[in-house]
Write a structure and sequence with these properties.
The chain has about 150 residues and is mainly β. About 15% of the residues lie in helices and about 40% in strands.
């Protein structure tokens, strides 16, 4: 099954690159840093990457990192549940395919989560959406990351 997924992602990635005529390769990303407010509830989140988000048409490159949650005053959240991460390219109408990111608690701090298994399928502007219940408030947080191009 894993081999089928990798073959599917390879074919899917080649199709997307050809269809969108994007440049290959990727320099350092341009994305928002620091705590950012969620849409409605006031909780905040920060996304940090283990390595620069990038895409390669020659190999699958798993992206990993940390998500940190805080309340509206910037204090670390005491309760975080139901965390999910979705990456998509609204301008192209697609996401990361059938391989979905995995989000799990990280360490002893209840406000810290690790994400992994995130594979960008092409260069360009990607929207990252993190949904969670933070201190009892359900909301979503968005950021944008530039993968490749300049």
């Amino acid at each position: 099954m894993k081999r089928f997924s990798l073959i599917f992602m390879t074919v899917f990635s080649i199709f997307l690159i050809a269809a969108c005529d994007e440049k290959k390769g990727a320099p350092l990303p341009k994305h928002q840093d620091g705590l950012q407010l969620a849409e409605k509830s006031g909780w905040q989140a920060e996304l940090t990457w283990d390595q620069s988000p990038r895409f390669s048409d020659e190999e699958f490159m798993e992206m990993r990192g940390i998500i940190l949650f805080a309340d509206e005053n910037g204090n670390l959240a005491s309760s975080v549940e139901g965390v999910s991460l979705v990456a998509d390219m609204p301008q192209h109408g697609h996401g990361t395919g059938n391989i979905q990111p995995i989000v799990s608690p990280f360490g002893e701090v209840p406000s810290k989560f690790r994400f992994e298994n995130l594979y960008f399928t092409m260069t360009g502007s990607w929207r990252i959406r993190i949904s969670a219940t933070v201190n009892g408030k359900v909301d979503a947080w968005f950021t944008t990351v530039e993968v490749g191009g300049s």
